[in-house]
Design brief:
With about 375 residues, this protein is α/β, with parallel strands linked by helices. Helix content is about 40%, strand content about 20%. The strands form two sheets. Strands 3-2-1-4-5-6-7 form a seven-stranded parallel β-sheet, with helices on both faces. A six-stranded parallel β-sheet has the order 10-9-8-11-12-13, sandwiched between helices. Helix 1 packs across helix 13. It is globular.
Length: about 375
C-alpha cells in the first residue's frame, strides 16, 4: 500500500514522535510505500536524538514551512487553518495514496475520503479548560475548535487509543469505540540498569511545568529530609517562571537535573523509587522507562498510570502523605522493594516497541487488498 503518515511537528521530539518512528518502521517492514507529511525538520538531528540513523532513507518526505503565527492572538485557530491547508494540498496533489495514518492530533486529519487510521492520545484536550480561570470564556473560545475536531473524527474509520483511559474518553466525547494500543516505550535503553546497585534516591522525570505537578514532588521530599530526591527534565521557555518559583521553595534534599533523560539515565539505575505526580495523564512513558530500569513506581492514582502500575509492581497514591508512607516502606523493606522492582521490570516489556509494532502491523494488514 501507499501510506501517507501525517505528523506535522516532528521537531517536538517527544513521545508522539516515537509513535511516528515505530509506525514508519512497521509500515516499511510490512512492505508498504511510506510518505511523511510534516513541517520541515532537521532530519540528522532527529535521527541522532532517537538513535534511528537511516530511518528516513526509504521514506518520501512531503514537507512544508514550519508554522509561525501572524499575530499572538487565536494561535490555536491560526495553527489549525495553516496545517489543514498544507496537508490537504499534499494529499490532493499526490494521487494514489491508499491509506492515511495520522499519529498526531485528530485536527490534523486532511479530510480526504481515504481509508484512515488515527492514533489518539486524548480527545478534545484544551489546557485552559483544566483551570478554574474564566471557564465560561474558554468554553466559548474553544467551541469552534471542538466542533472542528468532531468533524475530523467523521472522516476516520479506525481509532487507536493510547490507553484504556483514553479509550473511555473517546467513547464519551466522540461516541466512537477504539482499540487500545499502548505507545512504544524505549525500554531497551534502560533494561541494562535494572540490576545496578540501588541508593536511597527517589526521582521524577518530565518536562517541568504545572501539568506535571512538581510542587507535590517537592512536598513529598520536604517530608522526607533524610532521603535524596531528584527532578530530571527540561524547561520550556514559557514555563521558566514556574520552574524558578519551585527552585526558590525547594527543600535542600532535592537535586535539579535539567537534561534529557537519555543523557543521565544512570540516575534511574541508581534510584530505588520513581514518583509520578501528574493528574489524569493519558499514559506515562517515563513510568515505563523507570520500571525498565528497576525503579519501583509510586504514581498518582489517576489516568493511564493506573493501568501501567498494577498492584504487584508498585504503589498508587491519592495524597502526598500516602506517597510518603509508600516510599518510606519501600526504602525500609528492601525485600519488598526487590520484589516490586523485578515485577516492574518484567511488566515494562508489555509496553516495548515490538509489542506496538506487532499491534499496528495487524491493523495495517486489515487494509491490504
Amino acid at each position: 500500500m501507499r501510506i501517507v503518515l501525517v505528523h506535522p511537528r516532528m521537531s517536538v521530539m517527544g513521545g508522539g514522535e516515537r509513535v511516528a518512528i515505530h509506525s514508519i518502521k512497521e509500515a516499511l517492514r510490512e512492505g508498504h510505500e511510506v510518505y511523511l507529511a510534516c513541517e520541515r525538520f532537521n532530519v540528522d538531528a532527529f535521527e541522532d536524538f532517537f538513535g534511528v540513523q537511516g530511518l528516513f532513507k526509504n521514506v518520501r518526505l512531503l514537507t512544508y514551512a514550519p508554522f509561525r503565527p501572524v499575530i499572538q492572538r487565536a494561535v490555536l485557530y491560526q495553527r489549525l487553518i495553516y496545517h489543514q491547508l498544507r496537508l490537504r494540498s499534499i494529499v490532493s496533489k499526490r494521487r494514489g495514496f491508499e491509506l492515511i495514518l495520522n499519529t498526531a492530533e485528530v485536527a490534523n486529519h486532511p479530510g480526504r475520503r481515504l481509508p484512515s487510521i488515527e492514533y489518539c492520545y486524548f480527545p478534545d484536550y484544551f489546557s485552559h479548560l483544566e483551570t478554574n480561570t474564566l471557564p465560561n470564556l474558554w468554553e466559548l473560545y474553544y467551541s469552534p475548535a471542538r466542533l472542528f475536531y468532531h468533524s475530523r473524527v467523521s472522516h476516520i474509520d479506525r481509532l487507536l487509543a493510547v490507553s484504556d483511559y483514553t479509550r473511555e474518553f473517546v467513547k464519551e466525547k466522540w461516541g466512537r469505540d477504539s482499540t487500545t494500543l499502548y505507545p512504544p516505550c524505549p525500554i531497551d535503553l534502560y533494561s541494562d540498569l535494572r540490576d545496578q546497585p540501588k541508593e536511597n534516591l527517589v526521582v521524577t522525570v518530565g518536562r517541568i511545568g504545572p501539568e506535571k505537578r512538581i510542587e507535590l514532588f517537592l512536598e513529598i521530599a520536604r517530608r522526607m529530609p533524610s532521603v535524596r530526591f531528584a527532578i530530571i527534565g527540561s524547561v520550556a521557555s514559557e514555563k521558566e517562571s514556574y520552574s524558578n518559583i519551585l527552585r526558590k521553595v525547594a527543600p535542600s534534599n532535592i537535586a535539579w537535573v535539567v537534561a534529557p533523560l537519555r543523557k543521565v539515565k544512570e540516575m534511574l539505575g541508581q534510584a530505588k523509587v520513581y514518583v509520578h505526580c501528574a493528574l489524569n495523564e493519558h499514559f506515562g512513558i517515563t513510568i515505563v522507562e523507570a520500571m525498565a530500569a528497576g525503579c519501583v513506581p509510586v504514581v498518582h492514582n489517576s489516568g493511564g498510570a493506573r493501568e501501567v502500575v498494577t498492584n504487584n509492581v508498585g504503589c498508587k497514591w491519592n495524597t502526598p502523605a500516602e506517597a510518603v508512607s509508600q516510599i518510606s516502606n519501600l526504602i525500609k523493606n528492601d525485600v519488598l522493594r526487590r520484589e516490586f522492582s523485578k515485577a516492574a521490570a518484567a511488566r515494562s516489556k508489555m509496553f516495548g516497541p515490538k509489542v506496538f509494532e506487532l499491534g499496528l502491523g495487524s491493523v495495517l494488514r486489515e487494509y491490504q487488498k
